[in-house]
Amino acid sequence: MTTSLVRSRAMITKTLSATEWEEVADGALIQEDGVITEVGTYDDLHRRHPTLPVIGTGREIMLPGFVNGHHHVGLTPLQLGSPDMPLELWFVTRMVARNMNIYLDTLYSAFEMIGSGITTVQHIHGWLPGALPEVEARTAELIRAYEDIGMRVSYCFALRDQNRLVYQADQDLVASLPQELRGPMQRWFERFQLSLDDNLDLFRTLHRSHNSKRRVRVQLAPANLHWCSDAALTALATLSREHDAPMHMHLVETAYQKEYAMRRGGGTAVEYIDRFGMLGPNMTLGHGVWLNEKDIDRLAETGSCICHNCSSNFRLRSGVAALNRFEAVGINTAIGLDEAGINDDRDMLQEMRMVLRAHRVPGMDEAEVPQMAQVLRMATVGGARTTSWRETLGTLEVGKGADLSLVDWGSIAYPYLDELTPLLDAVIQRAKASAVRTVMCDGEVIYQDGRFTRVDRDGALKQLHDELSHALSDDEVERRKLSKALLPHVRRFYADYIDPAKHEPFYRPSSRV
Question: Were 307 and a residue from 70, 177, 282, 513 both cysteine, which residue would form a disulfide, CB within 3.0 to 4.6 Å?
């Protein structure tokens, strides 16, 4: 059993409301084998436990470990040649992605996440080519990367069994294309060989193999309404109930997805999945940009969660989610960095500022806009509740998991910071990833003064660079050509998809943001 004492200049243990938090000057805690056993001041705890090893210098601010509630890949789409575009067109550009070493790719984004204080990630995987044995093998490599670096991962493989490129059946898309594109398009679809039953078996295998581990959990991911048949929705809802497994589902990320739901079911996407009994505390909706007020009230009524992906919504022109309304009705909200944040990296400190600033609607009522404690709650407790760890993470309290970060106060306050500035205000608005000195997960220091304690970052990045320096393979070349040729056809498919007379404007009134 490992036991240590972690000290700080000040410790923010938890949020109490949207505007209040618990703060302990000279704060410290004791962790035993990854669980917090005592919380108090450093002087008191050190006096009573003088022989315990001490982590921290007393010049840092201690925060609960952050949870990235929505994550997909290592190297960003932009790094792989896919520029920011409207989501439905962006799917086509993602065809150009390289054949990656999934272990090294996963480490790449894990380095960035941990370096900004993230200790837990909801990794929503998908688009792995091959049959079930190949997908299982590559998934094992991805999970191994997280295990090796030491952070927690809640893993789910996004199930897609229809409409895998546009909001139309695969065979219909192929038939609509010029003859010279049909073969390449069909070959692209044939790369992904998992049947519905294979997807369900993959979950069962992964859940059986990993879900009892301390730092790994396995969840379910109905990828999106347009990607899932009714048979898939039924099967996933059943599996979730049988295993008490949380689900994470992209939903109404764009106005086009809102229109798809109307065409498919004559109502909203929330109403559609509600028919399958999918709503409740085990369901998290990713994005939720185009929810209406009735949808939002229904999510609150059922205790469903929403993961807010602020940077992604901006980058892919999806719109601005009604976060202030989500909060007003009491929906549990998390923060997700998706493929990458606004700076094309995975910096939770930066993303928290994005969430804080993006929803500051005109007016003087502070209760209508995000507050410091609210944003911290979203990045900690809110994210944890969307995973199988639920209430065991997200605060620095006795009995909770010892996941935390120490952020250098001098980097925040130098050369001057007025003493009237509340501590959390200063941290949320001024802390940079470069100020993160220590990150602990499950009681183990996994990052210290710029160095990862378990994995050689420089060596891993050098290997990733070297492996991607070779010439493109034949299939990579074909996919790049297909992506470029396909884009105008997909543009035409969506050109008249939405009838403006039947929908509210794309840009919502600011009071709903």
Answer: 70
Residue tagged 């378990």 (tokens) = 454
Element (H, E) at 60: strand 60-64
pLDDT at 504: 57
- Class for domain 66-392, per CATH? alpha beta
**What pLDDT shows up at residue 509?**
38
Task: Share the mean pLDDT of the chain.
Answer: 96
- For residue 453, give every residue at least 6 positions away whose Cβ sits within 8 Å of its Cβ, in sequence order, or none: 150, 444, 445, 446, 447
Are 107 and 455 in contact by the 8 Å Cβ rule? The answer is yes
Instruction: Report the top-level CATH class of 3-64+399-455.
Output: mainly beta
At which residue do the structure tokens 């139309």 appear? 168
List of the chain residues with pLDDT < 70: 1, 500-513
Dihedral Cα 20, 25, 26, 31, nearest 10 deg: -20
φ, ψ dihedrals at 170, nearest 5°: -55, -45
Q: H or E segment at 119?
A: strand 118-125
Q: Please report the beta strands in 357-435, taking only residues with DSSP state E, as ranges in sequence order.
A: 404-408
Q: How buried is residue 231: exposed, middle or buried, by Cβ count under 10 Å (0-12/13-18/19+)?
A: exposed
243-to-79, 203, 384, 502 alpha-carbon distances in Å: 37, 10, 18, 41
pTM for the whole thing? 0.96
Alpha helices in 383-422 (DSSP H): 383-384, 409-413
Instruction: Confirm if 261 and 269 have CB atoms less than 8 A apart.
Output: yes
**Strand-pair category, 444-448 with 451-452:** antiparallel
Q: What is the pLDDT of residue 511?
A: 41
Q: What local confidence, expressed as pLDDT, does residue 499 receive?
A: 80
Q: Are 413 and 124 in contact (CB under 8 A)?
A: no
What's the one-letter identity of residue 128? L
Q: Specify whether the CB–CB gap between 260 and 225 falls below 8 A.
A: yes
Equal CATH topology for 3-64+399-455 and 66-392: no
Question: Strands across the sheet with 444-448, in order?
Answer: 21-25, 10-15, 60-64, 404-408, 436-441, 444-448, 451-452
Secondary structure (3-state) at 362 = coil
**Measuring CA to CA, which residue among 116, 45, 68 is closest to residue 439?**
116
Instruction: Show me where the domains of the chain are located.
Output: 3-64+399-455, 66-392
